[in-house]
Amino acid sequence: MKLWSRYHVAHAVDEVINLLTQYAGHAQLIAGGTDLLLDIQQGNHPVADTLIDITKVPELNAIEITDTHLILGAAVTHSAIEEHTAIRSRATCLAESCGVVGGPQGRNVATIGGNVVHGLPAADGTLSLVALSAEAEVASADGRAWYPVGSLFLGPGKSIVDPTKHLLTRFKLALSRPHEGSAFKRIMRPQGVALPILGCAARVKLDETNSKFAEVALCLGPVGPTPTRAESVEAALVGLAANDETIQQAALLAREDLHPRTSKYRATSEYRVEMIELLVRESLQLAISRARTGETVSTGSGRGF
User: Fold this and answer.
1) Model's pTM, two decimal places?
2) CATH class of residue range 6-53
3) CATH number of 180-296
4) Which of 35, 60, 151, 205 has the CB geometry, 3.0–4.6 Å to 215, for a possible disulfide?
């Protein structure tokens, strides 16, 4: 069975954009292909006649660390992120979340940009990108522009990034500094590969005494059609003591304010509400500990129930 007619291997961003322009909506970008190839095989993808392989574009595979920021190519694999020392120590939740995606073979080819382009609200790495206030650069025939990562999501499987017209090139995010820490926790259902029931990425900044919250970011999914920021919880925590009592209050508030639906593939709404409380509490506790001690990523960020 013939799945496509033409296959191009691009070596530069401009070459990718020129090919997309040439095929005028009739070509599709491919990197890891872990989602796209299944869609094509199952007949669920309308554009599959021409594929443009972007895995050989150096800019898309680069990991650049400055004193303050991480620049991450969109074709960088989950394994490369999980194993990178600077990401583990200064964007810890991102390394943790990429380390629980699928199995080792999938992580070796699946890219951080693929989850964003496919608009997956349960994508573990994406939850961390949103919690870390990452920005994404999108290239097209009209040039390049930066967007907050969360703004790219329109709904399950829907993104403003059209892979027949646009190329997601890279992400940019601030690296943690003293008094800052992050963590990722997940509940998963083993089902061939681990299927996320719920994930939570937390980032905290403490005051100079390490006793109060100065900034908080929490992103959970899948709670709604897009990665969900727990904005009421974030706002309520700022200025309060970073202790177990406050964390428990925050976890209860998240439970009250967030309303995941029942999913036949994941869990009931009632169970997932209970897990919101657990994951918010545990991710905040770990992020605070890291902000105070500077410890790096640990293993075991996901539970299998």
Assistant:
1) 0.91
2) alpha beta
3) 3.30.390.50
4) 205
